[in-house]
């Protein structure tokens, strides 16, 4: 159908997945329109330059060696990478004791172990080996059906951790991995299905080093580059609230106007796709699924310093532990600027306590924990930027979503299936690197391909 006012495809959401699908369709010669709720593109791929000229990534920032879709895009737009700084001693603070050690452990083990007891270390590492083995037994793709799937999906990850660790350290290590690092979400182990945690490890494993590299100038530069080919097709500040579909066309209604098209790609986290009203209504499995996929509770905080002071003390600037607020911080300094940048996260129950504090208290909480990890020099910061992702209504949390018990096995099949002219994208839909930039790109490519098929 080629009428002047009818588009081949309307893409709702200009995050990375929406932009990639729009770009592929535009290159294919399709007539597209992109409707974005916010006054900027990029969604969770969001960067900013500080007054000093130093860049920070307020959303995602890292890329790893097996994230080939993301690496291809970076190459295509000539964005240069550098190794995420990791030289020097790492810090673990556990139950009030501080250890510096020349190694690393985050789902993989390198170098020396921290100075905790052998019993604690073996407890964590032996349970990890069991967890890893269980994850490798999952079928390929989304974990919907197959051996033990229903059983694994009926437990929380917390139950498994309690059954498989004996020490406080062993328990914390898994909870920390769930809350601050991997398995998507992030989530508290009590909130998430064991199956989902295993699937996260299988499809987006820390052992593939997803935090290996950073990007000079930040990941946040990429959205403008991708969009440069079709800028005039993007409408900002136009939230979509209704999609009419049927009779071989769709009508997409935003807060400002309505548009007709042959197809639509809804490119956003599932719970936001569920906020849109579909007429006629979608199959019940899909409607019910989007009611059951929450986003992680997480804020990202970026703190800058005149220089990476921790290096003068032999520290890597990477620290983990069970402090009151921060369980993880990482040196994110670009060697070409010389500025010290620490990225840190407040997640799960810690986030829920922290967001109740005043502005002054939240900042004091973060900075005082950084001082425990890296030393009192951390108190003398130059800038402090917190990005409270759950308060952004067009994201609802971060880094990504997670599945509570029972969701994958009872209605997960509705996650990525197109429904007539309606196609879905968004990192949450991916069966590889779900929750990461790479997963967002994969779903953008797949949605564009399925629309091209549909338009034939
Ligand atoms: C703090 C944080 C750290 C992260 N760290 C990393 C990392 O280091 N490496 C990594 O690979 N990934 C990381 N991620 C994940 C990564 O940012 C996401 O996987 C990716 O950006 C998601 O892209 P998307 O297009 O799927 O969704 P989004 O970026 O969420 O895009 C959805 C878009 O839809 C728009 N929208 C929503 N509702 C509507 C509506 N009704 N109408 C119109 N528009 C709408 C939104 O405004 C948004 O622009 C991180 C994420 C966060 C939050
Ligand atoms: Mg709805």
From TrEMBL:
Reactions this protein catalyses: a secondary aliphatic amine + O2 + H2O = a primary amine + an aldehyde + H2O2
All residue ranges annotated as the Amine oxidase domain in the record: 16-451
Binding site for FAD: 17, 36-37, 240, 428
One family name in Pfam for this protein: Amino_oxidase
Superkingdom per UniProt: Eukaryota
InterPro entries associated with the record: Amino_oxidase, FAD/NAD-bd_sf, Flavin_amine_oxidase, Flavin_MAO
Catalytic EC class: oxidoreductase
Entry keyword set: FAD, Flavoprotein, Oxidoreductase
PANTHER family membership: AMINE OXIDASE, AMINE OXIDASE [FLAVIN-CONTAINING] B
Family: Belongs to the flavin monoamine oxidase family.
Name of the protein: Amine oxidase
């Amino acid at each position: 159908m080629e009428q002047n006012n009818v588009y081949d495809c309307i893409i709702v959401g200009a995050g990375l997945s929406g932009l990639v699908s729009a770009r592929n369709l535009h290159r294919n010669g399709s007539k597209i329109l992109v409707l974005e709720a916010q006054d900027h593109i990029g969604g969770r791929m969001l960067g900013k330059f500080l007054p000093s000229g130093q860049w920070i990534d307020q959303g995602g920032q890292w890329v790893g060696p097996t994230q080939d879709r993301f690496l291809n895009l970076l190459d295509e737009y000539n964005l240069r990478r550098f190794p995420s700084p990791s030289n020097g001693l790492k810090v673990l603070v556990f139950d009030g004791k501080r250890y510096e050690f020349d190694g690393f452990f985050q789902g993989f083990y390198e170098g020396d172990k921290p100075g905790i007891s052998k019993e604690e270390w073996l407890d964590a590492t032996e349970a990890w080996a069991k967890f890893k083995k269980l994850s490798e037994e999952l079928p390929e793709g989304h974990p919907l059906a197959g051996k033990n799937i229903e059983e694994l999906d009926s437990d929380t990850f917390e139950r498994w951790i309690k059954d498989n660790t004996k020490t406080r350290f062993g328990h914390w290590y898994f909870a920390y991995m769930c809350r601050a690092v991997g398995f998507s979400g992030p989530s508290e182990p009590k909130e998430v299905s064991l199956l989902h945690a295993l699937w996260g490890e299988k499809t987006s494993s820390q052992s593939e080093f997803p935090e290996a590299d950073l990007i000079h100038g930040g990941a946040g530069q990429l959205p403008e580059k991708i969009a440069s080919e079709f800028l005039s097709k993007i409408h900002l500040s136009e939230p979509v609230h209704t999609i009419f579909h049927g009779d071989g066309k769709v009508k997409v209604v935003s807060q400002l106007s309505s548009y007709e098209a042959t197809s639509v790609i809804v490119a956003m986290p599932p719970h936001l796709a569920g906020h849109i009203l579909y007429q006629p209504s979608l199959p019940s499995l899909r409607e019910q699924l989007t009611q059951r996929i929450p986003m992680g509770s997480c804020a990202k905080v970026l703190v800058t310093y005149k220089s990476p002071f921790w290096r003068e003390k032999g520290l890597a600037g990477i620290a983990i532990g069970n402090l009151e607020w921060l369980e993880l911080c990482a040196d994110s300094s670009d060697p070409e600027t010389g500025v010290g940048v620490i990225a840190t996260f407040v997640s799960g129950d810690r986030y829920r306590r922290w967001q109740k504090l005043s502005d002054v208290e939240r900042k004091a909480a973060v900075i005082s924990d950084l001082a425990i990890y890296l030393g009192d020099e951390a108190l003398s910061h130059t800038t402090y930027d917190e990005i409270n992702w759950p308060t952004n209504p067009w994201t609802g949390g971060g880094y990504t979503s997670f599945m509570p018990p029972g969701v994958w096995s009872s209605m997960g099949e509705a996650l990525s299936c197109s429904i007539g002219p309606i196609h879905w994208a968004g990192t949450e839909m991916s069966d590889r690197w779900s929750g990461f930039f790479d997963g967002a790109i994969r779903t953008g490519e797949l949605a564009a391909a399925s629309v091209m098929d549909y338009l034939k």
